[in-house]
């Protein structure tokens, strides 16, 4: 059973994911310091650094945003001096990454609008599907439905930019009328922003995504989420309103039961969130076999070392190493999501002599990582027999949030 728990702990609002009795996701946030990711601003170009092909854009809030020029789109710029981008120009941008330590937030002129079933994008034409949608028959039906809609948009509107659509995992089982209805809503949001942004002053916030806890509950694999429980009345009311709004357009979709917790025993204690948080911040993770993982996040990368520990094995040493590595691979997949680690990740599995074992391990590891809703790319074994992978950054890692 998969459940979401939303409560307060150590001054933070915690959204926890529990899967079959184990905490598999922890998403802390300071309500007064919400993430900027997804927000769309009118910004003013402060200065351009040609050597790194980037601009720094003032978005107000005493915040300067890093803006790669490769992400610049002409339709999202109000230029004063010709075709190129200059200091003082006003641009429309969306925050893609929050500030991290000394690094400024990152913005882009390619905007995206996220719904329960679809993501609408500007500056990228085409139709794309979540890798978790496997049914070719369903893909074909959705392609016919959405491409027909996109063609009509192209023919009827004189836009100087194109739209792209990503069908999310939740879209696979959604009724066609619900998918089209959501597309209409997302298009309306985009059109509204493009119609008014040039009349707004620099620093204006034009679009703000839903709170993170709503996204975690309603936009990520709702078909497997059975319940969302909270002891916060305001959060409970928001969850109920969101659920009711979705059901208006799609009565048949699976949504979690929303429950308000009223018992005197603290909700965070009921689900042992303090213990889960402590374990998720520890550099050492014990495996059931007696082996362990040592997880070391640094500024450049995340290193994970697999050790046999007290699991010596009674028979074949190679088999012992293989079994420990398989157990470690499954646990690493859980820990990456739990700790929200991203960027370059290097895993030092226990060395094995048999090539067949290495191939089986890599295949098993890739399958375990596919359960993560965040995009992960496995690059394979390096010449030093280390496994290299990358995980897309969507928010700050757990250890950084908790140390602020």
Q: How would you describe the overall organization of this protein?
A:
30% of the residues lie in helices and 29% in strands. By secondary structure, the protein is an alpha+beta fold. The protein has a domain at 281-403. The strands form four sheets. Strands 4, 5, 6, 7, 8, 9 and 14 form a seven-stranded antiparallel sheet that branches. It has a six-stranded mixed sheet with strand order 17-18-19-20-22-21, with helices on one face. The chain is globular, with a radius of gyration of 23 Å. Its cofactor is Mg(2+). One of its GO terms (biological process) is rRNA processing. One of its GO terms (cellular component) is cytoplasm.
Helix-strand blueprint:
Layout: E1 2-9, E2 12-19, E3 22-29, E4 40-49, E5 54-58, E6 64-68, E7 77-78, E8 90-97, E9 106-108, E10 112-114, E11 118-122, E12 126-129, H1 136-156, E13 163-167, H2 176-196, E14 205-207, H3 212-218, E15 225-230, H4 233-249, E16 257-260, H5 267-270, H6 273-280, E17 284-286, E18 292-297, E19 302-307, H7 317-339, E20 343-348, H8 355-369, E21 376-381, E22 387-391, H9 398-403
Parallel strand pairs: 1-15, 12-13, 15-16, 19-20
Antiparallel strand pairs: 1-2, 2-3, 4-5, 4-8, 4-14, 5-6, 7-8, 8-9, 10-11, 11-13, 17-18, 18-19, 20-22, 21-22
Helix pairs in contact: 7-8
GO biological process, one term: rRNA processing
Protein name: Ribonuclease E/G
Pfam families: RNase_E_G (PF10150)
